[in-house]
Write a structure and sequence with these properties.
Strand content: 15-25%
Number of helices: 5
Number of strands: 9
Shape: globular
CATH architecture: 3-Layer(bba) Sandwich
Number of domains: 1
Distance between the termini: 32 Å
Radius of gyration: 15 Å
CATH topology: Glucose Oxidase, domain 1
Strand order of the largest sheet: 1-9-3-4-5-7-2
Order of helices and strands: EHHEEHEHEEHEEE
CATH superfamily: Ribonuclease E inhibitor RraA/RraA-like
Largest sheet: 7 strands, mixed
Length: about 160
């Protein structure tokens, strides 16, 4: 029988690296890390920081898939994030709607996660820059996202050519 999938699936219980291991990556050159991953560890060149001054960070990935032009997966990842996590949101995006973080999503996220990375779009660049959270995305769109679901949190993602 065919049924509708859940709007949000959350995979819990994955192990995060120890904090002392993560701290060893502080100050490492991005190119050296990419080389350590067989020369293919960097994201697609179109995924860029909104602010070069906010482009250096390190932390474990809290991953999510979201359907194109939808943010249910992103909000699931925000709720599951632990302090220091980097939100990594794979969109398979439609490039007309906001897919990623916007300044209105900032209740206490600054305390919960370290950065936001998506292969989609963000919204409200001025608000994001004012907030000071490192955001990497493919661009900015003022269009509103949907909230219909098919989000998956905590599973492997492929983002910008890297899994």
């Amino acid at each position: 029988m065919i049924h509708d999938p859940p709007a949000l699936t959350i995979h819990r219980g994955f192990k995060r690296p120890a904090k002392d291991l993560i701290e060893k990556f502080c100050g490492a050159q991005t190119s050296h890390l990419a080389d350590a991953m067989d020369g293919r560890g960097a994201l697609d060149y179109r995924i860029k920081p909104l602010d070069e001054a906010q482009s250096v960070f390190v932390g474990p990935a809290m991953t999510a898939h979201s359907a194109p032009a939808d943010i249910v997966g992103m909000f699931g990842a925000v709720n599951e994030a632990e302090p220091g996590d980097v939100l990594v949101i794979a969109k398979r995006c439609l490039y007309g709607n906001r897919c990623g973080w916007g300044s209105r999503d900032r209740d206490d996220e600054e305390q919960r996660y370290r950065a936001f990375v998506t292969d989609g779009l963000a919204r409200d660049k001025a608000g994001i820059l004012e907030f000071g959270l490192p955001v990497f995305c493919q661009g900015i769109s003022p269009n509103s996202p949907g909230r219909t679901g098919l989000g998956i949190v905590g599973a492997p993602v492929s983002l910008g050519g890297v899994t």
